Amino acid sequence: MTSTAINFxxxxxxxxxxxxxxxxxxxxxxxxxxxxxFYDKRGSELFDAICELPEYYQTRTEMNILRGCVxxxxxxxxxxxxxxxxxxxxxxxxxxxxxxxxxxxxxxxxISREFLLSSTQALASDYPWLDVHAACxxxxxxxxxxxxxxxxxxxxxxxxxSIGNFDPEDAIKLLTRIAGMMDNNxxxxxxxxxxxxxxxxxxxxxxxxxxxxEFNLNLLNRIRDELNSDIDPDAFDHLAFxxxxxVRIEMHLVSKRPHSVRIEDNIVEFEQGETIHTENSYKYxxxxxxxxxxxxxxxxxxxxxxxxxxxSVQLLKTAGK
Length: 321
Ligand code: AVI
What we know:
This protein has helices at 14-27, 41-50, 57-77, 95-101, 113-126, 168-181, 198-204, 211-226, 286-295, and strands spanning 7-10, 31-32, 81-86, 105-110, 131-136, 153-158, 187-193, 236-243, 248-255, 259-263, 266-270, 275-282, 298-305, 311-318. By secondary structure, it is an alpha/beta fold.
């Protein structure tokens, strides 16, 4: 761990947000909890481990695409931008861009406070010429990020196909808000996972080592440890499958038996086989994503994919600017 100074803006949503959304989500039928709550410290570590798995093709494929397209990317974007990374996590992918892109400032945005702090401190220490900022916010609710003033134009980097974790209507709302915070010459560089054979998708979310299962179940550890709850993670199983009709991976936690759970002053009943829907991960074709981008005020400038067409990295520009 390094102690290099960065400008840290902390608006972590806190336990009230978790309490409210968990109680509301478990009172609904079917039960659901938003995926943003996966990312406590342990959840972020587990997600990092998922990115290294042989079955999880997304991370290595996106990194290879980024390595191959960075020179072309720089020709579009030019130097001296403010580079804003949404869902920056371990900030590994952005390292592939920094030397060639030479932004004047970097702003990492993530909901996982400790992870964000240590990864942006490491960046500041490894790239001493870079002005590093970090904002711990829930960007699904707000893009109210601090102003950093030494830049020519803004570039938002949104890797990992995290846009796939939003239902299409919410994805349009988020992209529209991103378009709204961009200035003239603003770009969005976004990773988008592509539609493909079901077997590859099912394997990516059901890895043999059980890391994705642990990641999904860790949400229950978090509820037990941060809220006043007796929820037992051992009473649930991980379930992930491709829903071809909805064009998305769905992740659920399945109750192994009928039982009741206490959360604060609430009692939640589970039937055997009843699920908590914890995540969707939508998959797109390049054309479908172009439509979604257009509805959000962006147009596709260039799209890079791997040879097998598993994943895409897309450069979008605010339409009409
Ligand atoms: C962060 N997000 C894009 C991942 C995905 O693939 O939807 C989260 C994840 N869930 C299970 N494995 C990875």
